[in-house]
Amino acid sequence: MGVALVTPFTETDEVDYEALDRLVQTQLDGNTDFLCVLGTTAETPTLTLDEKRKIRKRVIEKVAGRLPILLGMGGNCTRALVEEIKNEDLTGVDAILSVTPYYNKPNQEGLYRHYKAVAEATTLPVYLYNVPGRTGVNLLPDTVMRIAAECKNVVGVKEASGNLAQIKEIIERAPEGFDVLSGDDGLICEIMKLGGVGAITVFGNAYPTAFTQMVHLAAEGKESEALALDKTFTDVCNLLFADGNPAGIKSLLSHQGKMGNNLRMPLAPARKEVHDAMRSAMEALDTYLATCQ
User: Fold this and answer.
1) Is 129 helix (H, G, I), strand (E, B) or coil?
2) Deepest of 107, 182, 187, 212, by most Cβ within 10 A of its Cβ?
3) Domain of 259?
4) Is 62 noted as a catalytic residue in this protein?
5) Mean pLDDT throughout 267-279?
6) Domain identity same for 99 and 167
7) 52, 62, 158, 168: the active-site residue
8) Are residues 193 and 278 in the same domain?
9) Is 158 a catalytic residue?
10) Are 75 and 101 within 8 A, CB to CB?
């Protein structure tokens, strides 16, 4: 169970590094398996290069080798991304998560060439990240297999297409050792039943212990137990994405007192009705989880 860390901000729109430290500590205490740093949930497109470097360094120092670090490094200019990968100090990073190029909408040949260049720029393991709802392009199974066959350090994919038939095909065709990770919190159990090996979650920011338990149950083939726990998350999970990510998770984390409910423009906090409903759903979930301990 990996967690896509949010980036806490202060009311004056600065990165809240103390809140980030606290959030990372909750992941260490909550048995999270690995951290995904500077991904979509981190509002990475709004961060400066200096902020990204400071966040990366801060998390690596806080973790101190206790959890693997999967670092988000993506872009829609292959040349610039390759230079960034080659020139940044990636000490303490265990693997790279690279989203498909966005906005310019390359075809499948363009996606293949992009990822081949990314893979050649580093000796670190690379995970593909397919999220067509955000990027405008869908990384198809044939292209995933072509990349996996030709780029030996491409070791998996975070699949957030929501297309279970496509994900099933990737799992069935993947070479040995190629990881398929769920990128949709609401589809984790279904994807793991198909043969996925885990997930990169948003929800885990707020409930690392419970979400880790669910993912581990699914990994162990305890489907009914995993689904029962998954069902208890439904109301909160639906609200997490009602106003987009990370507006929902920041609403939830603010109710938990872990950070302020602050996003960096152009994102804005969840609507009041969503924020208020989140508190009620959170309290109901907390009551249930307390009875299970």
Assistant:
1) strand
2) 182
3) 233-293
4) no
5) 97
6) yes
7) 158
8) no
9) yes
10) yes
